[in-house]
Design brief:
alpha/beta; 7 strands; globular; Glutaredoxin
Length: 177
């Protein structure tokens, strides 16, 4: 009976070691690129495509003038953008107000100048942006690295770290939450 237990224990240990080794060799599946949405300037005079920014880390920020946490977050994002713009970092803010004038007044009142766009209602529904602010960090290949729902002071440092890792080639590309 003891010999049988030893054989079973050896087999179990061998299976465990084999499965751990196989797990270490497994390559996690890559997350597909974020859809190539069209973003419209607030005045509707021009558009950009998300694909225009491939090769660079991009932060998409969804906000509204009536959003209290957005009032705190946008000035922090402006500072982050100023600090990282020389690294190739792109910040695209997407306003979800129904009136572009409300967005313009809000930005003017805060003294914020940032690339600000709108999306079609259909695209916003498709994305499922249901809390504000929502931030989506994309890697240079356009894949989501991290999604932030709501405001957190730690988010700014986390984005700074992830963008730095992307620049250094160590980013956990394709990880999302």
């Amino acid at each position: 009976m003891r010999a049988m237990r030893r054989v079973l224990a050896s087999l179990m240990l061998g299976l465990l070691v084999t499965s751990v080794a196989a797990a270490d060799d497994a390559v996690p599946p890559k997350v597909p690129p974020f859809p190539n949405y069209t973003l419209f300037t607030l005045d509707g005079s021009s558009t950009v495509q998300l694909a225009d920014f491939r090769g660079r880390p991009v932060l998409l920020t969804f906000w509204a003038s009536w959003c209290g946490p957005c009032r705190v977050e946008l000035p922090e994002l402006k500072k982050l953008y100023g600090d990282l713009v020389g690294t190739g970092f792109v910040l695209l803010t997407v306003n979800v107000d129904t009136s572009p004038m409300a967005a313009t007044r809000f930005l003017d009142a805060l003294g914020i100048e940032l690339p600000t766009y709108k999306m079609t209602s259909r695209d916003l529904v498709q994305l499922g942006v249901n809390s504000l602010p929502t931030n989506v960090l994309l890697d240079a290949e356009g894949r989501p690295v991290q999604i932030y729902r709501g405001y957190s002071p730690e988010m700014i440092q986390d984005i700074r770290r992830l963008v730095s890792e992307m620049r250094d080639g160590d980013a956990p590309a394709g990880e999302g939450s």
